[in-house]
Amino acid sequence: MEILQLFTLLGALGMFLYGMNLMSSGLQKAAGDRLRGFLSAMTSNPFKGVMTGLGVTSVIQSSSATTVMVVSFVNAGLLTLTQAIGVIMGANIGTTVTAWMVSWLGFKADISILAVPLMLFGFLFSNSKKDKRKNIGELIVGFSLLFLGLSFMKESVPDLRQTPEVLEFVTAWSSHGFGSVLLFLAFGTVLTLVLQSSSATMAITLIMLSMGWIPFDMACAMVLGENIGTTITANIAASVGNTQAKRAAMSHTIFNVFGVVWALILFKPFLKLVGYITETLFGLPNPAADGFVVADSTSVEGTAALYGLSMLHTLFNTINTLLLVWFTQWIAKAVSWIIRTPENQEKEVFKLKYISAGPLATPELSVEQAFDEIVHFAQISKNGAVYAKSAVENADGDKFEDLRGKLVKYEEISDRIEYEIATFLNGVSAEEVSESTSLKIKAMYKIVGELESLGDAGETISRILSRKNIHKKRFDADAIKNLNTMGDAVLAAYDVMIENLEAAHNGTLTEISNAYNAEQRLNTLRNNFRDSVIEDMENGAGNYQAMVYYMDIINAYERMGDFMINISQDLERGFVVKR
Fold first, then answer.
1. Number of neighbouring beta carbons within 10 Å of residue 432
2. CA 9 to chain centre
3. Predicted confidence band of residue 492 (pLDDT cuts 50, 70, 90)
4. Which DSSP letter does residue 451 get?
5. Interatomic CA distance for residues 385 and 486, integer angstroms
6. Does 198 map to a domain?
7. Is the distance from CB of 327 to CB of 106 less than 8 angstroms?
8. Quick one: which of 79, 91, 16 has its CA closest to 50?
9. 316 is in which domain, residue-wise?
10. For the chain, what is the domain count?
11. Above 90 in pLDDT, residue 564?
12. Torsion of CA 429, 193, 198, 266, to 10 degrees
């Protein structure tokens, strides 16, 4: 029977964690890119950053999701390190909302009674054809599972009062003074590392306290440990990111460790402050008073203990933020000193900018991150087209071999970026995504393939020019002029393509007539130049082999236009806003 009870407890914990993740995912999907815009817009100073982190985390109910999001934005250059530190401080305060929600709804209101009926509404919403309703359905189901899991956990936890030996053993661990405080702090840290959720650890701590397993001061020590354990998620996300991303994650660790240090130094006075505030605000017994014992979670003492622990969590993070928000610049300098810039980092010009910190906590935001990288990819690709045009102009000069080497390098870069983005999208599409996000991902797969083909086209032009030089052929002034005209038209088409990509990313793309016009211009130029070459051949003018190379380049330019119109058409299918 004890084994069944243990598995029931573990299953209830799994239900709680799954419900928390499902609720957070539904909230994030419903919020969509508004979260991204909110984060990047509301961080102009540390105080705004704190309020932003507090607001976002209160909404999505996951400080880990907010922190990983922040690390990714720092990695992408969308947030500075100083801005990120402010947001992380706010996220620590925002995550305390979960503790209050669990204390009030999970223990006092017993919302598990309504959880099963709520599942019906969640199911109905999740079967809707509208993404927004599906996301709300996911949120409701997650909310219900969270509190069902909490209810099952409370019911499956054994009553230690019926087994005095076990209760005596647990009590012995909490009777070593400050040593016990450090022991339970370490236990809270390890438990959070294992569960990867400070909210789940907080729920377990609340249950242990309400069941009378541990006294109030040991529960407080566990909460302090949870604040250290929760920093590991951001550090894992940043481990494959750039230096700034690692620094942002490290700042989270420094912030929380500093807070735990002062809280341990002032442990007794801090607990008295928490007890006094709880007693004054709620009219409950002081949970930090000598001789305070929780006999029953539904008793007045049980309520005082639960509210007191939630108050400690909130007060700890709020005081810590008020202390350190003035020193964000110093924290930034400290983490910059701890994590030095690698000597070879500046040489890595073409490493991915936006997705090297790994997938975000939700596919909806990961898609935004990947799109940032695609826009960057398009800009890199245009640089290759600029080099291709220069190679045509300098095909007979000393600079040609240098330009040819750059085009070969850009082709390799295109291959690598395509592979990295496609791999990232594979990870995102493996998660459960909304229908609109699925369409976007399919379009993005096609777009990165077309961008890679554009990189190949630039290298193709360099090979045509190399063959021309090997056969010692030269283009006359008119041919160079026509090729330059074609190259300018390609660069103009690039500008249109990038403009459409950015508009799609911002949600303002409504039609792509500009892309059709650019492609039509390239087709018209190609046809005119081809007709002119055919006429010269019929008249016996010019060198036949040189004209073949000339037309090969013209056709390569025209194919670049085809790749670019394909990209705009992919955007039209996956991203155009219907009006």
1. 12
2. 32
3. very high
4. H
5. 11
6. yes
7. no
8. 91
9. 162-353
10. 2
11. yes
12. -150
